[in-house]
């Protein structure tokens, strides 16, 4: 029922293929930010040897706009040739092309790498996307339907409940079970699906309170700039960026500080415009204050100009990309890292092999960017997990809420996933798997079908039940519908019209038109 071309025992290039009820669904189509070779994209040849993906995949569902979930989509649709339906929420459809174009510019225009997809590919890809609303039931075909649920994490992120025939699955993508400054907590019904596929980025971590992290962040930033230092915060342009901008903007206003706060120009200005428009996807606090002041109209945050790179005086800069794999954040690091009074804050998860991850390992004095480039590191380095992913407690809470029959863990590190897998097995008694990439996992689905029961069977079964429980309910006994939870024992018969009928053993001869035979024992 499940196959992983990506994100199996790894964080990156999320792409999960689920076959159920005669249908095949691709959940997410991401890239791996830690690789610059063919391992960057999922191995699509595992899906179809002939390359006919349109007839192989019934639909693609993308959970949110982060590149590890949507980064390979233009390549899959425009280069590989998939022409089937692609679904995502309205905010994801608005923001995904911004992220994709920013990535393309960094890798091709600035680093001179071979182009995997063009600006035109991104535009053509987005034309194929069908936008959906939360809790809206979408019917892809006669036997395939799905519904989106609020996931928190980033603006527009959604978890998806899919039903194909009688088989059901919930795919979470990335989610957050606790609210933050601009988003609410994930919300989903008790769906009891055959399978829950959940992310497990922080499979063994119980995070400290948000307020404690925010206080620590504000303290280290304020301390650095008060001593004349510069603060570099490499970050994804969408999501944590807006969260930390709200935090700093409010603090600067409260403390009447004049130190400039900068943001990578262009990309963030464009994305902030969408954030202002998509207020309905934020938390209640943002909605309540929207009439008097839009929280994304920052008073103290300004676009960054490269001429300010070596300027005098303290400042704070939010720069993309978040893992220092290239672009402005890496360029600024080369200028600011050799200065002791400066500060580098890494505010989230770091993939192995990235510059950000190397800087988090101990206290490096030099870091290798590539074979030709190394950076002297004398600045302070502070790691603060301002992650939008749920922690181990949140994952367990979601599993309890959804009540699946089986669980599959993706988007995590193997050793930590093994610990969480054991917890789900032991504490919740649910079969749990954490497959590697290209592994196939088969899980049983719960098959429901309608059976026509004879009136005689219902009446006799209920009479027997109530007499055995010493319950006198004459009106129930004469009912022509069996009460839920009452055991029924009968003979299953199929008719020429393929209908299934359940009858009492006494009725079988007359229904089949056969004589009744009695056996006597002496």
UniProtKB/TrEMBL annotation:
Protein name in UniProt: Metallo-beta-lactamase domain-containing protein
One Gene Ontology cellular component annotation held by this UniProt entry: nucleus
Lineage, opening ranks: Eukaryota, Viridiplantae, Streptophyta, Embryophyta, Tracheophyta
Gene Ontology BP annotations: snRNA processing
Domain Metallo-beta-lactamase, first and last residues per copy: 12-229
Residue intervals of the Beta-Casp domain: 241-359
Places the protein is found: Nucleus
Superkingdom of this protein's organism: Eukaryota
Keywords: Hydrolase, Nucleus
InterPro entries: Beta_Casp, INTS11-like_MBL-fold, MBL, Metallo-B-lactamas, RibonucZ/Hydroxyglut_hydro, RMMBL
Family the UniProt entry places it in: Belongs to the metallo-beta-lactamase superfamily. RNA-metabolizing metallo-beta-lactamase-like family. INTS11 subfamily.
Main location: nucleus
Alphabetical list of Pfam families matching this protein: Beta-Casp (PF10996), Lactamase_B_6 (PF16661), RMMBL (PF07521)
Keyword Hydrolase: yes
